């Protein structure tokens, strides 16, 4: 039997499920897009796989591996539809997740809505045990109480999963592990989450919150994975199933079963990894990734070919963009912003104020925008794009789905346009203006917080709706260049295939820099190296190719929060202290603009990033030949297939040449206004701009 080389990346979004198939042995890249089936996402996954295999003449047995990412975890936390869970915690710390940091995210709101806890007080139970700050036992674990409490939670309260979070368990996990063994002896199939495993870091509020969130989504994710594996096996798939972590790395599916909270941003992370891949190929070192799908828009800063990362995240915020209004999680995530601005975002009128509002409520895939003809009644961003001429009603999804523009006009008349006394086109232009300004404002804030100027960056746009709105977004941000890759509508799925097997691990050990027990630190790095190597081997990586990047989270003694500092090695000693001190001052100065070199330094946590090389994929191979295009020829006129009127803000109706994306070859150039259509998305190019096709078939658009 010949070696299998076919890999498939699948991004399950709120509206569409995107797929990319890559087979280097056959020089083949193939894409697919279909509506998500929210009641059972595996149905759309299986349907998409079967269709792509049929279109490429492959069989399920030819597929080496599948990489999947999903919004299931995010949606479960936001919608509060997770499992009934219980919490075992140290005596006296039952209310940690409710007390939180004892701060208000809005000081002046007398009716402040607190973020709801995932575990009500009646299911939070105290266990007599206690460790000191160094992990030494002060009070032994009451094993009988663990058994009695577990029985009560399961038999009286019907819990489906249990989180265990004891004080100082990050320093010594023995009590948590023993409690877990007792519960497993009673209920072998009950999902358990130990805080010392999911987030072995200092700060009991964040650690307990992360453990509870993991337990909250664990039963649901296990059912999802089990169902998906069963359905893949039923169609004849015998390869490996992998998942994308929120930090942008590929991991074995066991990670999804045991630590599903690490997948909370897996789909958006894939988009950032795709943008990083495209930026490296295009030779761009300063990029803003813009991923606009059917439900949300995601923006991420990519510098030197890699996205920013952070190691804390707030999920399910009561108020968008307001720090402290959500559930704090200690997980590794790609640092980005995500807002409720997608093709399915619903436009409505506030008749009291006489204003139009767009989003964050979305039509999703059920019922979807009005133009889909699936039952949607309220006009959306996609409906507005159709009215403005940006979308071809007969070529949506390559002609697979016809769009009903008459129904859209009726919906605008009955809804926002009628309520505000506007013509359909005026209302549609208002929808576009609002959603684009919302995204531009969020991007400005995100970059300003990092001390970056958007005018010095290139925008890489993808997602089904991204290329439609990218030109206007770049114009609002005063950017000079916009890049739209081939297959932009499914670029997140491409991210699953080019992302490296990678993982992040952390251990907390608090000590002043001059008093660090370096033997203990080196032992922590040895343990993390062994764990990381094992996880990446399970994810298909060659151990010989794994690289290690150690960091420490440090602060001045007495400060409340820390900064990440790169370390010279995983084997450290007293001789490394001067270099570590200098690295801390450099990191501190970059963030705060000054350094206090006389103040003592404290180390809190020690982190190790492990990664293996990702794959290299040329999207132009296979995708263009599928449409019958040739590799030579730079005349863009040959790719033009007509003219369509498009309404542009400030310019009025403009006659736009419509280009076939698959017929545009490297070197082709043309000027806007223009539309470039491919199966999964349409790129809208405004007046006065110049577009060219580079060697990788990216559209590079220079704004006037």
Automatic annotation (TrEMBL):
This is Hydantoinase/oxoprolinase family protein. InterPro entries: ACX-like_C, ATPase_NBD, Hydant_A_N, Hydantoinase_A, Oxoprolinase-like. PANTHER family: 5-OXOPROLINASE RELATED (PTHR11365), HYPOTHETICAL 5-OXOPROLINASE (EUROFUNG)-RELATED (PTHR11365:SF23). Residues 520-696 form the Acetophenone carboxylase-like C-terminal domain. Residues 7-185 form the Hydantoinase/oxoprolinase N-terminal domain. It comes from the Bacteria. SUPFAM superfamilies: Actin-like ATPase domain.
């Amino acid at each position: 039997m010949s070696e299998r080389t076919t890999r498939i990346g699948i991004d399950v979004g709120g509206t569409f499920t995107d797929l990319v198939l890559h087979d280097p042995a056959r020089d083949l890249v193939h894409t697919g897009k279909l509506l998500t089936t929210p009641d059972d996402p595996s149905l759309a996954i299986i349907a998409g796989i079967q269709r792509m295999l049929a279109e490429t003449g492959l069989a399920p047995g030819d597929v080496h591996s599948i990489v999947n990412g999903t919004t299931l975890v995010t949606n479960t936390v936001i919608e509060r539809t997770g499992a009934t869970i219980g919490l075992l915690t140290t005596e006296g710390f039952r209310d940690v997740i409710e007390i939180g940091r004892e701060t208000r995210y809005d000081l002046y709101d007398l009716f402040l809505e607190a973020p709801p806890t995932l575990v009500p007080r009646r299911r939070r139970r105290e266990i007599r045990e206690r460790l000191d700050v160094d992990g030494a036992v002060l009070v032994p674990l009451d094993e009988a109480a663990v058994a009695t409490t577990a029985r009560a939670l399961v038999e009286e309260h019907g819990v489906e999963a249990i989180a265990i979070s004891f004080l100082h368990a990050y320093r010594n996990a023995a009590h948590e592990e023993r409690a877990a063994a007792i519960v497993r002896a009673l209920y072998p199939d009950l999902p358990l989450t130990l805080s010392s495993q999911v987030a072995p870091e200092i700060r009991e509020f964040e650690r307990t919150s992360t453990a509870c969130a993991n337990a909250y989504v664990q039963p649901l994710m296990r059912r999802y994975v089990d169902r998906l594996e069963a359905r893949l096996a039923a169609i004849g798939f015998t390869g490996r199933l992998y998942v994308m972590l929120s930090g942008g790395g590929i991991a074995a599916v066991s990670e999804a079963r045991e630590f599903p909270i690490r997948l909370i941003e897996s789909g958006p992370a894939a988009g950032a990894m795709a943008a990083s891949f495209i930026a490296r190929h295009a030779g761009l070192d300063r990029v803003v990734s813009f991923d606009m799908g059917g439900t949300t828009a995601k923006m991420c800063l990519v510098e030197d070919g890699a996205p920013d990362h952070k190691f804390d995240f707030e999920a399910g915020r009561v108020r968008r963009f307001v720090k402290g209004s959500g559930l704090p999680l200690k997980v590794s995530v790609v640092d980005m912003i995500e807002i409720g601005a997608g093709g399915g975002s619903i436009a409505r009128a506030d008749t009291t104020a006489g204003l139009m509002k767009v989003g964050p409520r979305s039509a999703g895939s059920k019922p979807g925008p009005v133009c889909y003809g699936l039952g949607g009644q309220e006009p959306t961003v996609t409906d507005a794009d159709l009215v403005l001429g940006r979308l071809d009603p007969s070529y949506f999804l390559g002609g697979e789905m016809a769009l009903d523009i008459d129904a859209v006009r009726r919906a605008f008349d009955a809804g926002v346009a009628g309520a505000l006394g506007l013509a359909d086109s005026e209302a549609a232009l208002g929808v576009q203006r609002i959603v684009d300004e919302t995204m531009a404002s969020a991007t400005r804030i995100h970059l300003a917080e990092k001390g970056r100027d958007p005018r010095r960056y290139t925008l890489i746009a993808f997602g089904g709706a991204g290329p439609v709105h990218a030109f206007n977004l770049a114009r609002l941000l005063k950017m000079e260049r916009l890049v739209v890759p081939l297959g932009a509508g499914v670029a997140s799925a491409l991210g699953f295939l080019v992302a490296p097997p990678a993982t992040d691990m952390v251990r907390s050990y608090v000590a002043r820099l001059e008093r660090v027990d370096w033997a203990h630190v080196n032992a922590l790095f040895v343990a993390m190296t062994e764990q990381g190597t094992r996880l990446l081997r399970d994810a298909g990586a060659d151990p010989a190719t794994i690289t290690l990047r150690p960091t420490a989270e440090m602060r001045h003694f007495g400060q409340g929060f820390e900064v990440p500092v790169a370390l010279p090695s995983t084997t450290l000693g007293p001789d490394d202290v001067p270099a570590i001190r200098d690295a801390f001052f450099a990191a501190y100065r970059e963030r705060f603009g000054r350094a206090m070199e006389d103040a003592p330094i404290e180390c809190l946590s020690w982190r190790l990033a492990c990664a293996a090389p990702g794959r290299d994929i040329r999207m132009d191979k296979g995708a263009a030949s599928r449409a019958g295009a040739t590799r030579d020829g730079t005349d863009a006129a040959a790719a033009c297939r007509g003219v369509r009127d498009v309404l542009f803000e400030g310019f009025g109706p403009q006659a736009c040449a419509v280009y076939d994306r698959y017929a545009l070859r490297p070197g082709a150039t043309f000027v806007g206004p223009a539309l470039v259509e491919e199966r999964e998305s349409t790129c809208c190019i405004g007046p006065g701009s110049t577009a060219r096709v580079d060697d990788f078939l990216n559209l590079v658009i220079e704004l006037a």
